[in-house]
């Protein structure tokens, strides 16, 4: 059905739980303190060989701790959960032994639509027929259930649901394999997508229009060549070509004006003299 696997749970790092750390099972029982999953967090989830014991797994982890192991070395007050081909056993790590406990995993009851390890005849939204739980896995204090179609069995892909009935994995033929476990972890801790560099997403013209402030937008409208270019930049029209001509000196212009005035004055004086000569001749 699914590959054998195990999980290591350790007490959460909370001030109110310090008095439970490294205490033996007998000490907890004497004080009537139950071992509850709500006080623990999962620090490792891995595969195991069928038939392996908690003692063997502990020794293997002591020899070489996996890179994704997030806790301290296995010690008193830890909990180990072994799923050996669908047979789940929970152990409390005691000082010199492993004590089997039965009340650690408290799955959600079937009330309010919740799933349990005994759920049958369950209807999954968007899928035909009825489904039943054939395996379950505890990850970070939450239960996940492997659902098999009651009519078609293994001929139809399994579906993985969380304890509220939400589909986590829509299709799998290999039970709780590594790919499925990764999808479960991703659902608990969605990967954050970061923008690379300082690049900004490309905006449409209407978005640029809204992004531009009211004052700047008004100024731009008065100068823009057309309204589909209201984008925060004034006048997107192509610049007019300028004629390459040398700059004219103002002094030179004044001199030209003076010469023209003098020329006109000279012509006027000459006309007056010629007029006077003609009058003398007549006399």
Automatic annotation (TrEMBL):
Biological source species: Blautia caccae
InterPro entries linked: DUF4316 (IPR025465), LPD18 (IPR041258), YodL-like_dom (IPR025923)
Residue intervals of the Large polyvalent protein-associated domain: 114-194
Protein name (record): YodL domain-containing protein
Compositional bias (Basic and acidic residues): 246-263
Ranges of residues in domain YodL-like: 6-104
Signal peptide: none
Pfam families: DUF4316 (PF14195), LPD18 (PF18832), YodL (PF14191)
Region (Disordered): 236-283
Domain DUF4316: 214-255
């Amino acid at each position: 059905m699914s590959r054998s696997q195990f999980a290591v749970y350790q007490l959460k790092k909370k001030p109110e739980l310090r008095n439970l750390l490294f205490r033996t099972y007998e000490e907890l029982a004497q004080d009537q303190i139950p071992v509850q999953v709500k006080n623990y967090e999962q620090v490792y989830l891995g595969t195991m060989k069928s038939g392996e014991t908690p003692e063997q797994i502990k020794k293997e982890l002591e020899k070489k701790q996996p890179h994704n192991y997030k806790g301290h070395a296995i010690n008193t007050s830890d909990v180990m959960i072994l799923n050996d081909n669908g047979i789940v056993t929970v152990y409390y790590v005691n000082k010199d032994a492993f004590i089997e406990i039965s009340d650690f995993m408290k799955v959600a009851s079937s009330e309010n639509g919740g799933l349990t390890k005994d759920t049958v005849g369950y209807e999954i939204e968007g899928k035909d027929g009825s489904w039943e739980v054939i395996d379950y896995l505890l990850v970070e204090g939450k239960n996940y259930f492997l659902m098999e179609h009651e009519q078609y069995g293994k001929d139809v892909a399994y579906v993985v649901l969380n304890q509220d009935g939400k589909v986590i994995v829509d299709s799998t033929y290999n039970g709780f394999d590594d790919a499925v476990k990764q999808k479960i972890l991703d659902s608990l801790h969605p990967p954050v997508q970061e923008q690379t560099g300082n690049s900004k997403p490309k905006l449409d013209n209407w978005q640029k229009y809204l992004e531009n402030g009211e004052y700047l937008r008004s100024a731009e409208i008065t100068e823009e060549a057309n309204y589909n270019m209201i984008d925060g930049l004034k006048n997107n029209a192509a610049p007019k070509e300028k004629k390459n001509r040398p700059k004219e000196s103002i002094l030179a212009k004044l001199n030209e004006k003076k010469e023209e005035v003098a020329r006109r004055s000279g012509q006027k004086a000459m006309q007056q003299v010629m007029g006077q000569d003609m009058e003398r001749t007549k006399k």
